[in-house]
Structure formats: C-alpha cells, structure tokens
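User: Let's play a game. I give you a shape written as tokens, and you guess the letters that built it. Ready? Here's round one.
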C-alpha cells in the first residue's frame, strides 16, 4: 500500500483538521475544509461565476484546472497529495472544521436538526450509524442518492452534490440506504398540467396521437427517463435536451399527461435537479418549440 504523503507542517496551520482529512482519505472519503460559519471557501478570482468551467461532476461542462479549494463540495478530495499541497495548506490555516462529500463515498446522511426530527427518525427509519450534532443527529446509511433540503420539518438529506460536517465516527452499525429515505425526496413537480399547457390543438378528431400508438409514447417516456438517469455530467443540459426531444415528438398532439411529466421530473430530481430547474427547463423547451 502506498504510504501517505508526509504532512507539510506550515506555521499556524491546524494539524488536527488536516490529520482528520488524511484519516478520512485513507478510508476513501473525500473531504474539504470549512471556514468560519461552517461554509466552504469562496471561489478564487479565476473561478468567480464559474468562469473556469467548473469542477468535474458539477453541472457546468469541462474540468477546472484551479489548484485551489474553492468549489464547495466538488473540491472534496481523498488524494493525500492534494490535501497537503501548498494551495490547500494555506486554506487549512484558516479552516475551522472538516466536511466530507457523502455521495462520493457512497453514503447518505439524514441530517436531523432538532429533537423533534430525531424523535421522528427513531420511530420511522431503520437503525444505522448515528453521529451527534450540536442540535440533533446525523444518521448515516450506505448508498448514495440525490440531496434534498427540508424533506420534512428539521430533516435534510445530504449525499450527492452536497457536503456534511465530519463530527466523528459515531456509534452503531451502518446499514443500507432504505426506501423510506429515498421516498422522502419524491415530490410532486411544480408544473402546470402538460395536457392543458400545450396550446396547439389536437390534430385528430378522437384526441389520440395522430402519428404513433400509445405504446410508442410509453416507450419514449421510458427511454427519456433512462437517458436522464444514465447521465454522469452536464445534468442540466441533459434534462433540457430530453425535455426538448419529448416535447418535439408529442408536445403538439396533446397525448402527454400529468403522469408522464411527473415521471420526467422525478428522474431529473433524482439526479440533483431542483423542482424549479425542472420547471424552467420544461418552459424553455416549450418556448423553443413555440408551444
């Protein structure tokens, strides 16, 4: 096994935080430093407003070559050489705590923010690894999913495209991510019913799709969901392109229903898109097609 890169002890840096990050890295858990206020460090001048093109796995295209620690959850790394590089050492001196990217480690954190949320979890969720926080608890499960805030009062889900504070190893045996937690993230999409929002009249007299059978529409929705689910980068662009393709084929015949749209939105939200992003992408696609 390769030995960890020796720690470069810089004046004023906080060995405990860096040692914690290196310990997490040894277990394959990407981490990052947080500044005062438990927030990630802001973008450097070269990366302001994503002028750099963004980090891998972010919604913008192209890898960023910035060596700094300025991309929030996407800066998290399990590479000891990166954690102890000069750019990171300068940040460790100003850091106040360590965070990690649960999704990249194949984990999901159910963040319970108060006593009421903890009581609800103990009655509802399967037991797993528990870490105490200032006001509540983190319940950690094996398995990743899209992150969602405020899935119920005092409860956030932190996994992909999110970070969680590292507050120690916790206690209890970590168990597999249950469907109970996944179900918390399923919400009704905030969109007007597609069948009423398409203003172009149905072409056939009986209201059926004039150019294909209902089975063709169902196959198209399944393929659209698969395309979104399989995306590994440029998620927002993939969602928009998929919505555009579905609407270009079926947006003028009135065969799309609320249920079809809900399935598309659910697939996009499972990849990290917000309900607002889904609505904007759907609206932009309709505008592009003149619907």
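Assistant: Ready! My guess for every position:
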């Amino acid at each position: 096994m390769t030995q960890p890169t020796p720690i470069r002890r810089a004046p004023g840096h906080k060995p405990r935080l860096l040692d914690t990050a290196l310990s997490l890295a040894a277990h394959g858990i990407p981490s990052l430093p947080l500044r005062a206020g438990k927030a990630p460090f802001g973008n450097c001048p070269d990366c302001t407003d994503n002028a750099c093109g963004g980090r891998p796995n972010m919604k913008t295209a192209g890898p960023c070559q910035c060596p700094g620690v300025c991309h929030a959850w996407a800066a998290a790394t399990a590479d000891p050489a990166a954690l102890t590089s000069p750019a990171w050492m300068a940040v460790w001196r100003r850091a106040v705590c360590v965070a990690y990217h649960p999704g990249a480690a194949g984990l999901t954190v159910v963040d319970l923010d108060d006593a009421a949320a903890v009581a609800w979890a103990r009655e509802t969720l399967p037991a797993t690894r528990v870490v105490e926080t200032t006001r509540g608890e983190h319940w950690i499960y094996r398995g990743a999913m899209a992150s969602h805030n405020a899935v119920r009062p005092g409860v956030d889900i932190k996994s992909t495209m999110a970070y969680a504070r590292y507050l120690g190893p916790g206690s209890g045996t970590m168990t597999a991510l249950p469907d109970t937690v996944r179900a918390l993230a399923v919400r009704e999409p905030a969109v007007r019913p597609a069948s009423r929002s398409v203003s172009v009249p149905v072409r056939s007299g009986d209201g059926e799709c004039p150019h294909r059978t209902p089975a063709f529409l169902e196959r198209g929705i399944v393929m659209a969901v698969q395309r979104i689910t399989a995306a590994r980068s440029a998620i927002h662009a993939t969602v928009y392109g998929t919505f555009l393709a579905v609407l270009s084929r079926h947006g003028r015949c009135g065969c799309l229903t609320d249920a079809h749209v809900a399935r598309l939105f659910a697939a996009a939200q499972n990849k990290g898109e917000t309900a607002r992003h889904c609505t904007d992408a759907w609206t932009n696609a309709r505008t592009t097609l003149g619907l």
